[in-house]
Amino acid sequence: MAQERCTPALELEHLQRLLLSCREAKKSAYCPYSRFPVGAALLTRDGRIFSGELRREEKLTGKKELLGKGSESLPALEWDKPFTQHMQQEVVLLEIPLGSPLFSGCNIENACYPLGVCAERTAIQKAISEGYKEFRAIAIASDLQDDFISPCGACRQVMREFGTNWAVYMTKPDGTYVVRTVQELLPSSFGPEDLQKIQ
């Protein structure tokens, strides 16, 4: 029997505002080497959005339209694309923790390339530093035309640290997306419970 995927429904207005906040947070990315900015935003259960770039808080209310499972279309969003010279892709990220403030994150590069940090990990680390460790979903968007953007292996392992049954939304610029659980993206994984087996 197929296991039910963890794909929490998102209110349409929440999703639109989160994606806009992600693009704003992306402006803070430090990426002089790859010129590949990434932004992130997180949403609270009670509808508050916090974006590091905007340094503001919004309380969302309104439509109860929901987005469900599968490969579906995201709502058409109206925004001006920021100009980044020589940039081949724009990537944004949103992450939804249980009962916590919305955190934003961006990629941070270093001249010693392995020391750079992806937006997914920046957002998760910010949430952890504020005491939040339970997540419902994370979503990533980019300008890749022919495939859905997906997290790198290191980000998948960091996500796995906080559970295997939460949703990863991978999108295309046309608004379509696929949803997978962390378990599906990182099968046969190693996690904190494995360390507890060693006594």
Please give a structural write-up:
- GO terms for molecular function: cytidine deaminase activity; identical protein binding; zinc ion binding.
- Its cofactor is Zn(2+).
- This enzyme scavenges exogenous and endogenous cytidine and 2'-deoxycytidine for UMP synthesis.
- The protein is of the alpha+beta class and 199 residues long.
- It has five helices and eleven strands.
- It has helices at residues 12-26, 119-129, 153-160, 182-185, 192-196, and strands at residues 10-11, 38-43, 48-51, 56-59, 66-67, 72-73, 91-97, 105-106, 135-142, 167-171, 176-181.
- The strands form two sheets. Strands 2, 3, 4, 6, 7, 8, 9, 10 and 11 form a nine-stranded mixed beta sheet that branches. It has a two-stranded antiparallel sheet with strand order 1-5.
